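wait is this the right file?? whatever heres the structure
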């Protein structure tokens, strides 16, 4: 439809790398940024629930805000990146905003209101940067290598998620358990990630005779049946997902783990993600991306059932964290790889943001409802209800995406 020629990325030249230098540079940015963000994420449930003694419902609201409340801004970031053809600039602003927000945690103290505002600012940055970053990846490799590219990127991202809690533990140990020291260190690491983006990530330039994307074209994306179906499926799957903090808190309660062990639960999940992201990305390119994504949600249902199943002790921790990491490895980047070929290049960022926004808003609803179910019916019933919702979401997704999906 649009007369455009995309400059071929380095992936077409075997002499460089399997996925190209731009994907590796973006992966490095995500690795460094995830070290920073996971330092905070690893201690957040412990700080709020075990330290400030907030209720499960209140934690569900905070967790939903952390992931979903600023989701609509993904659309704004995606549209601006497409409209002005500045994906790197929008992503860079998002990374920088999240870095600055880490300093705000120092001033928040024990105030839940201030804490919520700072978290919202941090997530605003994430909302702005995610779609432009993922669009840069889709434009940096051929379509047939998207699964592998996202697998490599998510693998590098998960290395940061693996290291972040360990760095947080090291800082706490060296600073006599000072949370302020964790926040300052997190800020410094986030700044390094922004510098790597500025210096090493390249904007993928296109030669086109089409005008910049207009707002009416962006709004019209949902009139395209394949895009509308995928966005609907993303919402269904988002409703089936509860926050990491809930899973880790339930494991901590089930096994009566000491506070010092709590951040290591995130490390176990990240390790499984790290090991599986690239193989599952390659598998998705070979057998189809939709089967791999739905297989990931089967693993999620298994995780929820294990939380109050017959298995206990170390076998429970290994199985639950392994399945949880498998869920992320099979779904995080591969869902975006599903979206990439369905979207025109000039609206690629907006379309990805549309899918991610629907999923994130659904996640916000899911976290609040899970917190309410925990508080009303107890954690065991809430976990089993969550597993049932996952099964229903898998079936509904198969119906919605009944036509062939890449």
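ok assuming it is, sequence goes like this
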């Amino acid at each position: 439809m649009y007369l455009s020629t995309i400059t071929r990325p380095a992936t077409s030249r075997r002499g460089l790398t399997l996925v190209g230098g731009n994907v590796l540079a973006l992966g490095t940015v995500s690795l460094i940024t995830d070290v920073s963000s996971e330092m905070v994420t690893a201690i957040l449930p412990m700080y709020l629930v075990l330290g400030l003694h907030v209720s499960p419902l209140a934690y569900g609201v905070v967790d939903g805000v952390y992931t979903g409340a600023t989701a609509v801004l993904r659309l704004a970031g995606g549209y601006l990146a497409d409209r002005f053809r500045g994906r790197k600039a929008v992503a860079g602003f998002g990374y920088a905003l999240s870095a600055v927000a880490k300093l705000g945690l120092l001033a928040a103290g024990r105030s839940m209101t201030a804490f919520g505002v700072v978290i919202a600012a941090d997530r605003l940055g994430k909302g702005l940067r995610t779609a432009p970053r993922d669009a840069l990846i889709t434009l940096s490799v051929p379509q047939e290598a998207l699964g592998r590219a996202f697998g490599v990127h998510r693998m590098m991202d998960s290395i940061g998620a693996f290291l972040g809690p360990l760095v947080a533990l090291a800082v706490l140990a060296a600073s006599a358990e000072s949370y302020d020291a964790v926040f300052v260190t997190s800020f410094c690491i986030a700044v390094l990630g922004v510098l790597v983006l500025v210096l090493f990530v390249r904007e993928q330039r296109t030669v086109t005779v089409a005008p910049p994307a207009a707002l009416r074209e962006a709004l019209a994306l949902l009139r395209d049946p394949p895009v509308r179906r995928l966005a609907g499926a993303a919402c269904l799957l988002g409703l089936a997902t509860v926050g990491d903090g809930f899973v880790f808190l339930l494991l901590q309660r089930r096994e009566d783990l000491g506070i010092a062990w709590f951040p290591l639960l995130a490390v176990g999940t990240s390790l499984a993600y790290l090991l599986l992201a690239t193989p599952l990305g390659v598998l998705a390119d070979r057998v189809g991306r939709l089967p791999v994504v739905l297989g990931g949600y089967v693993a999620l249902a298994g995780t929820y059932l294990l939380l109050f199943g017959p298995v206990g002790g170390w076998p429970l921790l290994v199985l639950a964290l392994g399945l949880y990491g498998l869920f992320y490895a099979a779904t995080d980047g591969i869902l975006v790889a599903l979206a990439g070929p369905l979207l025109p290049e000039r609206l690629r960022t907006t379309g990805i943001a549309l899918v991610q926004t629907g999923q994130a808003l659904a996640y916000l609803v899911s976290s609040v409802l899970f917190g309410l179910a925990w508080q009303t019916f107890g954690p065991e019933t809430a976990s089993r209800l969550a597993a049932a919702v996952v099964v229903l979401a898998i079936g509904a997704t198969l119906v919605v995406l009944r036509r062939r999906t890449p």
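The beta strands are 4-6, 206-208. so i think its the right one actually
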